[in-house]
Amino acid sequence: xxxxxxxxxxxxxxxxxxxxxxxxxxxxxxxxxxxxxxxxxxxxxxxxxxxxxxxxxxxxxxxxxxxxxxxxxxxxxxxxxxxxxxxxxxxxxxxxxxxxxxxxxxxxxxxxxxxxxxxxxxxxxxxxxxxxxxxxxxxxxxxxxxxxxxxxxxxxxxxxxxxxxxxxxxxxxxxxxxxxxxxxxxxxxxxxxxxxxxxxxxxxxxxxxxxxxxxxxxxxxxx
Length: 223
Known about the structure:
Elements lengths: L3 E6 L4 H10 L11 E5 L10 H18 L3 E6 L7 H7 L3 E4 H9 L6 E5 L4 H12 L5 E6 L10 H19 L3 E4 L8 H8 L2 E3 L1 H18 L3
Parallel strand pairs: 1-2, 1-3, 3-4, 5-6, 5-7, 7-8
Helix pairs in contact: 4-8, 6-7
């Protein structure tokens, strides 16, 4: 039976994939679908530009096609959701993008969501996406911490900047729920939530939770 949730990190960073794998540990269960996290060898070390986003779509679609028969669902673990609609068109399985799922989850937890981005260059992509999603009337702001994907491993610096940006989103922009704008930030969620005092959504956890729920329900109704 098709059951695994494949979480595809479209960059080639094994460190980011390991962080994603650790983030979804609470969603694993003995009787649930398997959750398999993998990197895209053809991808860049970090996805930080529109060119990076566009460049990973074709190899990601190829990887997903190889996994199709054993998949219960796919999760695209990049906050730009590269190839989301193309993979939905290609696959017979449900496909979840972490940006879409992160924002939709945030809308259930607060009135105005703020996003913590990694770099200023990420923000125009995010704004285009939020506009396409039709959620701008619930959007507070999107602010960067100014660190690239590879620099997120400096935990003290990263958390300090995330707390500073999170507090600004709350106090200056009226955000009452925050979304982490990168798949490599999960280990900071609890500390950030406590420091800022609002709910924080880690988008990969949000997407995988939806995917697991869908697979479990699909299996429950399969004769």
